[in-house]
């Protein structure tokens, strides 16, 4: 009987299959070993995909990505910051080692090989950025290379020649170093967001200087062809700065000129009344005060001095109060009624000047600065309850009384002089004054003194004009209105 060859064939087939299986396994092991030398798909180091790359290739890619400059945009300017400028350094060894460590600890070799055979991909590996840089160098770069070069200073406001207005200037820019530093820090640490919009703030143009205002006021006097004597006093109620400008017949002269006070003297009278009376004022006194300030009547002024101070020496008591406040160029030497006796002849530094004279009335005189200083004292008292009044007349004049004084002055609405140069609705507390000279029936002196409240700042403005021949009201009114408008525009620039 012939023997069957089937078992032998089966054996050889089995051997061949085993050999094939071993060969395939070896091939897959080789492939897996090679693949194991690279980072698995999905691996990200410092946000950069490095799947399929070996250590050297991954290091090159990281260096390339984080070596790109950071682009800073400041307005229209573009500034490049190379990471090397701030000593930016990647911890390549540390990050690559961390990635390998994560991969190796996820699965053992054979478990990973088994998953490879079944086409199961390993989990993605994420390694955060490890890097250092010099924040001091970055700050220095921002301050010297960016801010110093690209910050724009504001263009200052300047007077427009021949007008009462100012060019408001243009705002500037200043970089916010701290906030920009934070954004650049984030850009240096990002593989994709390498552009930074520099954070900056606008800086408003500086207000024109008082010298600028003085130039404009001189131009206003010149363009109005004023050929008399003028003094303009300005007190900034925010910072106490003063401007005192005096002109005589086209020439600049030292300030402190003695002028006839006329009805502006009623402000000192009002202060003296409140010094001696307490609120609430008697109805008769209130009525007289309203007539004296609001309607500028002379008889109520005399009656107030007679009733509250002294029937015969009331004007001298007002003068004494004014001197107590330190105003040496202001006095009242008699009542207002025609033919009133001159109680005393006063000599002051202002009326003893020989370089300029306005032929001031021997009954009542003041200077622009004295009148403005007194209004400033009233304002300060109304705001805080303190100031000069509290020192000169302790406990005699209260904050509410000073506010009431301002309310009286605010009722003096005449729509001319300083008030005419202000926008409609602007609050002003003021007292005007002019008088007809009994010797020739003409006006020689016109004045206005007030506290002006504006969005751009509050101020005291006093303007005195004198002409030896005649001061025509309409041209004088226009001149004072223009001067007032210039000062208002100084505080309230267009575009601010």
Automatic annotation (TrEMBL):
Pfam families: Beta-lactamase2. The chain crosses the membrane at residues 12-30. The keyword Glycoprotein does not apply. GO terms for biological process: beta-lactam antibiotic catabolic process; response to antibiotic. InterPro entries: Beta-lactam/transpept-like (IPR012338), Beta-lactam_cat (IPR045155), Beta-lactam_class-A (IPR000871). One of its GO terms (molecular function) is beta-lactamase activity. Residues 285-464 form the Beta-lactamase class A catalytic domain. Keywords: Membrane, Transmembrane, Transmembrane helix. PANTHER family: BETA-LACTAMASE, BETA-LACTAMASE-TYPE TRANSPEPTIDASE FOLD CONTAINING PROTEIN. This is Beta-lactamase class A catalytic domain-containing protein. The lineage of its organism: Bacteria, Bacillati, Chloroflexota, Anaerolineae, Anaerolineales.
